[in-house]
Inverse folding.
């Protein structure tokens, strides 16, 4: 018996009847021989971690654009925090941690430079719109491995696509990631806002803190334990009405005071200008795209190739290319 088969046997004995077992996966679009040591979901997790898109997350904005301090979150640290929260939920509910982790690590692979600012810009520029969850799915299906994709299992791809937006995950493991994403970004964005002086402790909504807790760790713990308590044996993950109401109120507060506040306005204009300028230039000079995106342009049209290229950029790379294309470097001295 292989190590993989032993793991699958342990899953059959331990996991909740509602969990998704690796041995019962719907499989991949392209069949592959099974790994001797890893289940299909463990294999997916490893493919995501070793992908180029995953490495680029370290250079992409969460909320702060190119922050000066070392302790502000990036898209990569956000992803790791989501994975941690999601695995905690999955473990407590006896769901498949490997599937949960794979979805969590891949959920933001399609995010743009400059966070949701870049996403909003591409959404206006692309005729069919742009949504980072759909782009994340496109990254693992079409763009990685020089256009071959990662050939992930259907359960992982479903969770990546439906971690946000109007769709809903088909597995409870996907629901863990959808819940964990909100828990993570609400709490770590609040922590960063306090660290950056955007908010002061006395400004935080007292009603929310009374229910959720007065510290960063207490709020996360309250949300997780409440979900576990009210979701065991249920068909979907849920919160108690009291904690759900406090969480929603905290989210509204964050949108008002952080995500949509005037402190971001100037940076939003600048970032939007960078994305739009790069988009316009590459639409006029598609031959200047890197080879892999040039091939996308040949297969699916220039707009698609340009969009894929821009959405994959890190913040610093986008700024550097903008400077090279549009900022004079000076004239040589005679």
């Amino acid at each position: 018996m292989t190590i993989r088969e032993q793991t699958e046997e342990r899953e059959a004995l331990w996991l909740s009847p509602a969990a998704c077992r690796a041995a019962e996966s719907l499989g991949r679009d392209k069949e592959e021989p099974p790994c001797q040591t890893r289940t299909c979901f463990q294999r997916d997790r490893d493919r995501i971690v070793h992908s180029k898109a995953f490495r680029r997350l370290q250079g992409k904005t969460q909320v702060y654009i190119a922050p000066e301090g070392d302790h502000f979150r990036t898209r990569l640290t956000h992803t790791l925090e989501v994975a941690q929260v999601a695995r905690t939920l999955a473990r407590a509910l006896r769901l498949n941690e490997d599937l949960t982790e794979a979805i969590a690590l891949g959920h933001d692979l399609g995010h743009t430079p400059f966070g949701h600012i870049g996403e909003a810009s591409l959404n206006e520029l692309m005729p069919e719109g742009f949504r980072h969850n759909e782009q994340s799915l496109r990254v693992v299906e079409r763009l990685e491995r020089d256009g071959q994709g990662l050939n992930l299992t259907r359960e992982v791809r479903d969770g990546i696509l439906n971690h946000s937006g109007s769709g809903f995950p088909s597995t409870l493991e996907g629901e863990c990631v959808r819940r964990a994403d909100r828990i993570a970004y609400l709490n770590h964005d609040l922590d960063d806002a306090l660290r950056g002086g955007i908010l002061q402790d006395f400004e935080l909504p007292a009603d929310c803190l009374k229910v959720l807790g007065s510290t960063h760790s207490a709020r996360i713990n309250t949300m997780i334990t409440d979900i576990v308590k009210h979701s065991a044996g249920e068909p979907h993950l849920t919160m108690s009405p009291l904690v759900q109401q406090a969480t929603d109120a905290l989210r509204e507060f964050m949108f008002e005071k952080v995500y949509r506040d005037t402190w971001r306005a100037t940076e939003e204009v600048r970032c939007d200008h960078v994305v739009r300028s790069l988009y316009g230039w590459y639409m006029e000079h598609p031959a200047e795209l890197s080879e892999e995106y040039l091939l996308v342009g040949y297969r699916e049209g220039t707009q698609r190739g340009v969009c894929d290229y821009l959405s994959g950029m890190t913040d610093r790379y986008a700024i550097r290319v903008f400077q090279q294309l549009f900022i004079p470097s000076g004239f040589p001295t005679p």
